[in-house]
Structure formats: structure tokens, C-alpha cells
Amino acid sequence: MLNNIGLPGLLLIAVVVLVLFGRGKISSLMGEVGKGITAFKKGVSDGSKEIEDKTAEEAKDVTPESEKDKV
Q: Is residue 61 part of a domain?
């Protein structure tokens, strides 16, 4: 059903949305979407950093003291 929407159909939909909501409302909505995307990316990077820190703490040297002197 949606495979038949071409450029004229998309333009018509854009015009209808613009008329219904107005330029200001769409602009503020897109700003909020941008802030949401930025917050999501920050959360993902913070989560991966936390996982890396946790694995680095777990990767401690477990060599017995008697074996550390041998090189």
C-alpha cells in the first residue's frame, strides 16, 4: 500500500501536515526530537563506558605471589 507513494504524494502529505500543525509547532517538535536523539546517544555512550570500566576492574592480575617473581 505504501509502496506507491511517490514524490508528489510525499509533498502533499508534507503540505497537509504543515497546514494542520503550523510551522512553529513542527519546528518545536523537531527540536524536541533532536534533543531526544542526543540524550539517547549520550546514554548509549555512557552505558558502554560503564561496561568497559566494569570489565577493566574485573581483569585484575590474579597471578599468585610466588609466580610474580619469576620472569
A: no
Domain range for residue 42?
Answer: 22-53
pLDDT reading at 1 higher than 60: no
30 falls within a domain:
yes
More confident residue, 36 or 24: 36
| pTM for this model (two decimals) | 0.51
DSSP secondary structure letters along 17-57: HHHHH-HHHHHHHHHHHHHHHHHHHHHHHHHHHHHHHHHHH
How far CA 55 is from CA of 12, 43, 59, 61, in Å, comes to: 52, 18, 6, 13
43 part of a folded domain: yes
Domain count, the chain: 1
